[in-house]
Write a structure and sequence with these properties.
The chain has twelve helices and 14 strands. The protein has helices spanning 3-16, 70-80, 133-137, 152-170, 191-202, 216-228, 262-272, 287-291, 296-302, 305-326, 360-372, 379-383; strands spanning 20-28, 34-44, 47-56, 60-65, 82-89, 93-98, 104-109, 179-185, 206-213, 234-238, 252-259, 277-283, 329-335, 346-352. Strand 11 (252-259), helix 7 (262-272) and strand 12 (277-283) form a beta-alpha-beta unit. It has two domains: 3-109, no CATH class; 133-383, Vaccinia Virus protein VP39 (Rossmann fold). The termini are far apart. With 386 residues, the chain is an alpha/beta fold.
Amino acid sequence: MNTLGRFLEKLRDSLEQQTFVKITLSRGRGESGLRNVYGRLVELKAGTAVCFTLRHASRDVTRNDAPADAPRAIEKWLTDDFEEAHLFTTTGDWKLRAEHGGEWKMKAARPTFSAALGTSHDRPKVKAIGNAQFLVKLGVTAADGTVRPGMADKLRQVERFVEILGHLVDGSPLRDATAVRVCDMGAGKGYLTFATHEFFRARGVAAEVTGVEQRADLAEQTNRVAAELKTEMLKFSQGAIGAFALPDNLDVLIALHACDTATDDALAAGVRAGAKLLVVSPCCQKEVRREFSPPQILRGVLRHGILEERQAELLTDGIRALALDAAGYDTSVFEFISSEHTGKNVMIAATLRQTKKDPAPVREELRALMEFFGLRSQRLVELMGM
């Protein structure tokens, strides 16, 4: 039996013995346009099936195969379209790769997963990631899992973000996704970018995560950490939020603590890319405070600088929420993390609506709000042509 045959036998055995977790195909070749294929088990009315997500450049196609038919499908894809496969089971992992000349090589490794992923629609909660290796590499925790001095607040922030992300994903069209594309704009040192990748990995979801950071040294540093951890499908790119080109079929857009109108640039880019989930935490909001002219009745209150600042922040985030609503998103604004840990504690989350809704009433509400505060323009409203 040749190497490809042995790999397919491992796949067949894992499906029969119920040790199969998932399979990924990569390094596409040929003219099919396929970039990746991801497979995991799902429970349908007709019984258990292997759900394959076929990723193309601008769209994803999902199909369900009977477990007995899955090895034949994988064999055809490996013969025609791909040069690499990674099989995950509870007893071991196997990586198949085509070397120069087309010869297949297979390597075995210890299992990444100790239990099969759930096949129902009830997703298990992702446990706290306080012991994740990326936290050690980024200096948040020590090798034994203890928090390093001065990093307790950062760990709380990371864990709270993962908790929120879980709730948001479960309430979105991405709940049962087998593969997602994510972009974190303004990634900084990568704490939340790595956390996002780990969150999806723990759910058994193949996540292609890109962190965008303007500072070249940080992008280089985080790429180095990702390489050291051998983290698949996680990369960092140097670039400005407003100039970075997002893929058309983006699933999740994240922008935490992007300064002032950079948050608006990120949101507008996410909407244009058709992102199913937008998650931002604004900070340094200066645009509206410079431009608005509150009505006379409020000027006695807003003559106090701190109150004027807070009013401008509330107005900015309110405008953003209404603009996203008008763009087809169900939007919520809530506390990200207690203000005792950080002053940047507001989060805006928006989930792409599954049914159309007339945007006219919301647009009128938005215009009336801006007129009340004497505001002629706002960055997100302007970018979205409202």
